[in-house]
Specification:
Layout: E1 2-10, E2 13-21, E3 28-29, H1 34-38, E4 58-61, E5 66-69, E6 72-73, H2 74-80, H3 83-92, H4 98-109, H5 117-122, H6 131-141, H7 155-181, H8 194-203, H9 214-226, H10 234-244, H11 249-260, H12 268-279, H13 285-293, H14 314-329, H15 336-348, H16 352-356, H17 363-374, H18 381-401
Antiparallel strand pairs: 1-2, 2-3, 4-5, 5-6
The structure holds s-citryldethia Coenzyme A (SDX).
């Protein structure tokens, strides 16, 4: 990282500060001294111009539609590797050698079971509970079972907690699904790869053998890769902020899952599929495009737009290709939802409103169609996003904890409430 200097001038006050240049991407202005020098804060509620940290994990160029995992382009990582290779890359910073990959796969595989009492924990939920509610609770509850990996000052415990989190999140996700459909939990199998194991835990039943479709398993593994990390998005920032207080990693990941659930974030894949169903047919698209453009209508095209990508989300292109692969494999020739999605995308990409505001399909636009075709209910879509993003949250959490300059995150505010006033007794109100 190189640094130069800049001058900040506010009113009659001006002072020199550092401008730091990373390896690629925008430089940052160090404003740490601003309050002390000027008595003022910066103001950026949506963090549109604010870098919250220094990171070496993921890089996004929103204007060019570029996404790099530790420098490797997302399309190359998704095409050539598997999800656990991506996990290794995000955690350790380098692609694994064959021996390192085999050891990592072995270690993850042997952490996939959860404490047997976790099964009883699920019994407290209504059967119609949203699986994301179950995930927030059950992941947070892991800190009630694994006390031997919650001391974040111990690097060994940090690594054990990381492996446990990556290994157990698919098991908990499958349990959340099985619980809502009233089927018995299926234990992980050590002779299956990560994603095939997850599909088996979701769709196998005790009454008959279940054979994982390798095409679907490869497709879902690629979907996990696409969702693994994405710089300082809302849920990752939540995990970092929770972790900055020293909270244990299981509690931090539970906080990230809670944030991801929102329809503006990871909940968009569920919302996008519901929207496509609501549109129903190609003929109805113009009406919904008009609603999306109407300032007085809160309706938005779910799966469109992005805070950072002002070009096509590179993940959406791969998601679209995967959607067609899965539908072809399953012999689904004319999926009306896919027809609506393809036509909606075509219209939106030529509409002045969307072109001017640089609104392109994002990763959530095509994922719902694919996951529905695989047999997942809509309510499980964001759970699958959480399964994949757990490695990104863990990698970012560890990077934050291991930063020697790490401090608790504590933003300030612009106060516009009542100035000091004296207490009024009830008899005088
Ligand atoms: C994810 O941050 C990440 O990296 C997230 C993520 C990840 O991997 O972690 O990429 C995953 O969350 C993808 C985004 C999924 N969300 C959706 O698809 C929901 C629909 N999209 C929008 O809600 C919105 O685009 C956001 C939330 C994604 C981005 O919001 P911003 O950056 O705050 O932008 P904005 O809401 O200020 O919109 C800018 C303008 C507005 O118009 P003006 O007020 O300037 O006139 O574009 C309009 C908006 O009205 N707009 C849309 C729109 N998205 C933005 N209009 C219609 N439909 C949309 N989808």
């Amino acid at each position: 990282m190189t640094a130069s200097t800049g001058t900040i001038k506010v009113g009659d006050t001006s002072f020199e500060t550092n401008v730091k240049q990373g390896s690629i991407g925008p430089s940052v202005i160090d404003i740490g001294a601003l309050y002390g020098k000027t008595g003022m804060f910066t103001y950026d509620p949506g963090f549109t111009s604010t870098a919250s940290c220094e990171s070496q994990i993921t890089y996004i160029d929103g204007d060019e539609g570029v996404l790099l995992y530790r420098g490797y382009p997302i399309d190359q990582v998704a095409e050539h590797g598997d999800f656990l290779e991506t996990c290794y890359l995000l955690l350790y910073g380098e692609l694994p050698t064959p021996a390192q990959k085999a050891d990592f796969d072995y270690r993850v595989t042997r952490h996939t079971m959860v404490h047997e009492q976790m099964a009883r924990f699920f019994q407290g939920f209504r059967r119609d509970a949203h699986p994301m509610a179950v995930m927030v609770a059950s992941v947070g509850a892991l800190s009630a079972f694994y006390h031997d990996s919650t001391d974040i000052s111990d690097p060994t415990q940090r690594m054990i907690a990381s492996m446990r989190m990556i290994a157990k999140i698919p098991t908990l996700a499958a349990m959340a699904y099985k619980y809502t459909v009233g089927q018995p939990f299926v234990y992980p199998k050590n002779n299956l790869d990560y994603t095939s194991n997850f599909l088996n835990m979701c769709f196998a039943v005790p009454c008959e053998d279940y054979k994982v479709n390798p095409i679907l398993s490869r497709a879902l593994d690629r979907i996990f890769i696409l969702h693994a990390d994405h710089e300082q998005n809302a849920s990752t920032s939540t995990v970092r902020l929770a972790g900055s207080s020293g909270a244990n990693p299981f509690a931090c990941i539970a906080a990230g899952i809670a944030c991801l659930w929102g329809p503006s974030h990871g909940g968009a894949n569920e919302a996008a599929l519901k929207m496509l169903g609501e549109i129903g047919s190609v003929e109805n698209i113009p009406k919904f495009i008009a609603k999306a453009k109407d300032k007085n209508d809160p309706f938005r095209l779910m799966g469109f737009g992005h805070r950072v990508y002002k070009n096509y989300d590179p993940r959406a292109k791969i998601m679209q290709k995967t959607a067609h692969e899965v539908l072809n494999e399953l012999g689904i020739k004319d999926d009306p939802l896919l027809d609506v999605a393809v036509e909606l995308e075509r219209i939106a990409l030529h509409d002045d409103y969307f072109v001017e505001k640089k609104l392109y399909p994002n990763i959530d636009f095509y994922s719902g169609i694919t996951l529905k075709a695989m047999g997942f209910p809509t309510s499980m879509f964001t759970v699958l996003f959480a399964v994949a993003r757990t490695v990104g949250w863990i990698a970012q959490w560890r990077e934050m904890i291991e930063d020697p300059g790490q401090r608790i995150g504590r933003p300030r505010q612009l106060y516009t409430g009542a100035p000091r006033r004296e207490y009024v007794p009830p008899s005088k109100r």
